[in-house]
Amino acid sequence: MIRVRGMHKSYRTGKLVTPVLHGVDLDVADGEMVSIVGPSGSGKSTLLHAIGGLDRDYEGTIEVDGRDLRAMSDVELSAYRNRHVGFVFQAFNLLHHQTCVENVALPALFARGEGMLSREQALDRAREVLGRVDLHDKVDALPTTLSGGQRQRVAIARALFNRPRLMLCDEPTGNLDSVMGKAIIELFRRLNEEDGITLVVVTHDPKIAASTQRTVRVQDGLVLEGAGDALEAEAAAAENSSNTADAEASAEGSADPESADVPEDPADAPAQEALA
Amino acid sequence: MRSARLFALVLANLRRSRNHFLLASIGIVVGIATFAFFLALGLGVRAVVLGKIFPLDKLEVVPRSLEVDVGPLRMGLGQDALDDAMAAKLGALPGVTAVYPKMKLTVGSIAYGGESLFGADLRSEIVADGIDPALLASEINKDGYQFVDHETPERLAAEPPKACTADAECGDKMYCGEPPGTTTPRRGTRKKPGPDGQPDQPEPAKVCRHFVPVIVSHHVVELYNGTLRRAHGFPQLNPDAVRGFTFDLIIGESMVETSNQDQVIHDRGMFVGFSDKAIPLGITLPLGYVQRYNVRYNGEDAAQRYHSVILEIPVKDDVAAVAKGVEDLDLKVKDSGAEEAALLIAVFMMVFGLVSAVIVGIAAVNIMHVFFMLVYERQREIGVMRAVGASRGDIGRIILGEAASLGTMAGTAGIVLAVTAGTIFDHVSARYVPDFPYKPTTYFDFPWWLIVAALGFSISFCVLGALLPARRAAHMEPARVLSGA
User: For residue range B431-448, what is the model confidence (pLDDT) as tens digits?
Assistant: First the structure.
């Protein structure tokens, strides 16, 4: 499905050129669930954005279903993102002035051709997708009133709105506590297994990486395949430390420090159970 | 992206950032209000000045004569009148749709009467001219009053006047008088009755006649109300109430002794309305009456001695060509000052148009700043839209749509402000500014194209101001803004 060949990417700041990726090769098969790990600044997100058609400023080729993304016009690439790709970001990236259902239906605004829906059809579908992530009761809520886990589920619902074949997730659990993070990953696994959606997840979390079918590591601007065994060991170690941390967190009643600004909603608990 | 959805999204964004937009649009509102107000004022004044004072769609053509000053006198050399043949030539000029000859009354005449209006009968020398009634048909002929020649030979032949002894025997707006064209010895020249007690010349049998329709210029009433009435202690006249006022017309009699004729015509006139086409100081009658009076006292040739001819030129662009044609016929266009007035008004409109353009231009720069700021504030949102499928064009359309909507709203507000200011201006003028000749009921003209132009102006400047921000938004790298790089 995805074929990356010889991808080079550099960032320019004035005259300063910072190379990030040096000839990355990567293949992701249809229906596969792949995690991309690596240190901060290694280019994981850059690779993900390029695969999603958000960034065309690179060298090399990225083909999705045989179509070279760089050869597409802006309108074609926009249609590709709209119809075939669902993005999930660490920071959720919801529009705070719109309700959950409007956020989820946002892709319908930019649909073209056969994918066009009436407003009512779009809202109906958005409600249905919100139901799939167990947010039936938050349809008309504003994102600012939701917990971090709920916001990420709204973002996932938005990514699922157009029933994409490919979901690209950039640190999807980065702002969530470990329990909610696990539930989100479980949701991804279910989408992958039941709906056959191809998932590429960028993560720092070895537990999440270990839960995917395949893990690739981006390091020094290159992709290193077969990092799975090492990661499983890292995951096991992380599991032990996280259990300890969770116990401490439960005792203190606090959430993940990274999402300290996001109120955790007790409503997440049944959702976590449902997702699990 | 569907237009309806784009519109809904744009409106939602405008609502969301209403405070920013409200402040940004103040300049546009003021600029458009200035633009619409002064343009409408210019058009309104132009309509009064060029439509009434110096009508540009009508040219008055007079004979070209060489004038020579001889001592205190000015002698006119060459022809001083036009005839039917020349009128026909003028009518054949391209762009001329109608020709209306004008003729001055070339015999002394007196108006007498007015007790019902002034409290006493007045006697005054009058200056009169005749004009083709067709020129005023739509303007005067209403409310039962008509500016027509009731006594053309054809009409008199078809409907001979019936005999009478008193006004009551005749119909509405008619009187019992001497038969048309009858002359009688001027007062003071009548011979004393003979030995048999009968007058030397018997009184003619009376017949029912229509009053001679008379129109005057608004200027006459303004002059009366402004000056004459004060000098003589007369009441102020309401122009609307003086229609139907009747008076005696004595043609051939004059306060200037040498202008007196032995035989005079006693007719009666009725004031039927006002028109800017009437002679500025005097009275205007249907052309036929003046022709008959002139023929009676100056011979048959006088029937064709027109002193000027009015040419109707509906298309203003044809005026220059017609004026050239007039010169080619060795005639000249009467200098009415229209060109100077038109130039003055054009300069006035241009200056204020420029001022409003500057105001709107500055406002557009302000709009640009606001949109740059909004684009910066919304960059993550724009990134999200791009991620879910918005193309660069979609993003550009959203920003420009907001600018166009802002322009529409600000432009509408500006036009409403201009119309309101104009209404207040007119109200103040009507209430506090003293009457003067041609004082209009409104100084403003807001034609549909002015509204469209003002809106277009507003929308164009807003869109122009938002072009760069829209371009920046459309070319924003979504990956960069979404990753927070």
Answer: 887 766 566 788 888 999
